[in-house]
Specification:
Layout: E1 4-16, E2 26-38, E3 42-46, H1 53-60, E4 68-74, E5 79-81, H2 87-96, E6 97-100, H3 114-124, H4 131-144, H5 149-152, H6 161-173, E7 179-183, H7 191-208, E8 211-216, H8 219-223, E9 228-233, E10 236-242, H9 243-248, H10 253-260, H11 267-270, H12 301-305, E11 311-312, E12 318-319, H13 324-330
Parallel strand pairs: 3-8, 3-9, 6-7, 7-8
Antiparallel strand pairs: 1-2, 1-4, 4-5, 9-10, 10-12, 11-12
The structure holds iron/sulfur cluster.
């Protein structure tokens, strides 16, 4: 049986808007999400901007408060409820769960050398006792991220985007985490560099036995990286499946639209794309029923009043759509 590193159940994140006494608007960024992330896996989280994927990733890092539900983290050494972490237990969790930022240009202080940038978490968390110990750990992690001693003496401006992202990765790894949230970590890079950074992440995962949550708006990037994919729309999971199954037969109309956004090399396919029209609704003003009904070409009256729940077929493939079976029969994958 596979070990589970993170199990979230009914997890919600809401932010109160406005400072007035009588303002009660809630921005419901994540709504009743249940998700299981197996130890040593590369878990992909996909959706448009505004879908809540970044907030879900940050909630699992306890970087934003979980307002409802539970998320359990168990790496074999510690078994904790992320939502209720505080004090020394939260400090300990910071070592174990780390974030790789999207923008390697904004994430690195221009005034610090690469050595100091990578060493900072060790010093802040007091994980090493001497400078020699810190330097040895920095060199060890830098080498894993293909950075040499000469690189450690330089400042971030001397590096390309791909090299800067490798510095960000080294900084995230230096505390010895088990769980890494990589939030759009290749989105700011040229396509030719993306593959290099993705290969590095896969290599590190294999070598160090880490668990990744890989957040992306781009299904084509997820295809080559992740073992399992969850698709989010307006704070909810709408489809989740092993990557192979999802790519062989997406079931939710939103997932299908995301697939259509992947550029095809086949000129005959280009005209068939089912384009997403309209914009994702505001989380402060969510439509009733299925949250996707305002943009779904398959919506019927039921979709406007009744919210579909995730349902599985026993194979690990789950979808939240009233019509998925019927639609699959009409247009088989
Ligand atoms: Fe479309 Fe209805 Fe399915 Fe929602 S439930 S995705 S509106 S068909």
């Amino acid at each position: 049986m596979t070990d589970v590193l993170i199990r979230a159940e009914g997890l919600s994140v809401g932010f109160q808007l406005g400072g007035g006494l009588f303002r009660k608007d809630i921005l419901q960024a994540v709504n009743n999400v249940s998700v299981t992330i197996e130890k040593g896996s590369f878990f992909g989280l996909v959706g448009e901007s505004g879908s809540g994927k970044t907030t879900l990733g940050r909630a699992l890092l306890k970087a934003v408060p979980i307002t409802e539900g539970h998320a359990r983290y168990n790496d074999g050494e510690v078994d904790v409820d992320i939502a209720s972490l505080e004090g020394p237990a939260l400090k300990d969790y910071r070592k174990r769960a780390q974030l790789i930022f999207q923008d390697p240009y904004a994430a690195l202080s221009p005034r610090m050398t690469v050595r100091d940038i990578i060493a900072e978490p060790l010093e802040v968390m007091k994980l090493t006792k001497t400078r020699e110990e810190t330097d040895a750990r920095v060199r060890e992690i830098a080498a894993k991220c293909r950075l040499n001693l000469e690189h450690l003496r330089r400042f971030p401006h001397a590096f390309s985007g791909g090299q800067r992202q490798r510095i960000s990765i080294a900084r995230a790894l230096v505390s010895g985490p088990q769980f890494i949230v990589a939030d759009e970590s290749v989105a700011a890079l040229d396509v030719s560099i993306q593959a290099d950074v993705l290969n590095l992440l896969k290599q590190i995962q294999a070598d160090m036995g880490l668990t990744f949550m890989f957040i992306s708006h781009d299904l084509s990037v997820v295809a080559h990286t992740c073992d399992h994919v969850a698709v989010m729309y307006l704070g909810r999971l709408v489809e989740t499946a092993p990557t192979r199954k999802l790519f062989a037969g997406p079931r939710h109309p939103y997932t299908k639209a995301l697939f259509s956004a992947i550029p095809s090399l086949d000129p005959d396919d280009r005209g068939k794309a089912q384009k997403l029209t309209g914009e994702i609704p505001s989380p402060t003003n969510q439509p009733p029923g299925c949250k996707f009904h305002t943009r779904c070409p398959n919506a019927i009256d039921r979709c406007k009043s009744e919210e579909p729940q995730l349902e599985g077929d026993g194979s690990g493939h789950e979808v939240a759509c009233h019509r998925w079976k019927e639609l699959m029969e009409l247009t088989p994958a």
